[in-house]
Structure formats: structure tokens, C-alpha cells
Design goal:
single chain, about 140 residues, alpha/beta, about 15% strand, globular
């Protein structure tokens, strides 16, 4: 089976969708910074699924190095979270935040991993796509 990482999983909707993909035996670990999202009642439905790692989730800031061993995951994806890293925070630039994510993703993904898809179309930051492309090239 495959092991996937849902970056910014929220209440688990995208995690459940990935875990139920037909034709795949996929374990999905959800990552989110918001504790209240990780405690959402929606995770109960995921717990009942007959799939590997059903409802596993970790509280994690995507702008920090990911807390996983090297070469662990086959795929990583983000539906609606990574674009927030394209903005400067009070302590770190967007480049530093994106470098932390993409650098640790490079480390966490297996060598034969499938391409990861990130999105940046939900942001008001006009340079988000460019910033993400540059960070991915540096990783």
C-alpha cells in the first residue's frame, strides 16, 4: 500500500477522500496546525473506515520541518493550506517558511514517490505560485 501525507488536513475531508480512493490501499496521515480542526467530529467517520491508519493526524506547523523520518511517504498533497506559507509571518519570510516545507518534504518523501500537488490559487498573494516554484527548485 501507499503512505500519504495530507498537508493542512483540517477536519479530514480530503484525508477521507484520499483514504477511500478506489483501487488503492492507502494510509493517510493528516497534518494541521489547528487543534480544533484535528478534534472535529468529522474525524469519527474516518475512524470507522477500514483503511490503514484511519483517522491518524498530527498537529504540525507546515512552516517548520516536518516531524517524520526520511523517505517515509509515497505521496504528499495539499488541498487548501500551503498557500498560506507564501506570505511573510511576523518572524519569518515566506521564502524561509516555504523552504522549511519543501526541504522537509523532499526528505520525507520516498525516492520513488509520486509527484506531489500543491495549490496556490486560493490566495490573494499574487506571487504565491512563483514563490512556491522557487522554493521547490531549492529543495
Amino acid at each position: 500500500g501507499l503512505l500519504a501525507l495530507d498537508l493542512g488536513c483540517g477536519s479530514g475531508l480530503s484525508t477521507a477522500t484520499a483514504a477511500k480512493l478506489p483501487g488503492y490501499s492507502m494510509g493517510v496521515i493528516g497534518l494541521d496546525l489547528a487543534s480544533e480542526m484535528l478534534r472535529s467530529d468529522a474525524w469519527e467517520e474516518l475512524s470507522s473506515l477500514r483503511c490503514p491508519l484511519a483517522a491518524e493526524r498530527v498537529r504540525c506547523d507546515l512552516a517548520q520541518p516536518l516531524p517524520f523520518r526520511s523517505r517515509t511517504f509515497d505521496v504528499a498533497y495539499s488541498v487548501a493550506a500551503v498557500h498560506y506559507l507564501a506570505q511573510d509571518s511576523t518572524r519569518r519570510t515566506s521564502a524561509e517558511r516555504l523552504d522549511a516545507l519543501f526541504g522537509s518534504l523532499r526528505r520525507c518523501l520516498a525516492r520513488q514517490s509520486r509527484p506531489s500537488t500543491m495549490q496556490a490559487f486560493l490566495t490573494r498573494e499574487p506571487t504565491a505560485m512563483q514563490k512556491m516554484s522557487e522554493a521547490a527548485a531549492r529543495a
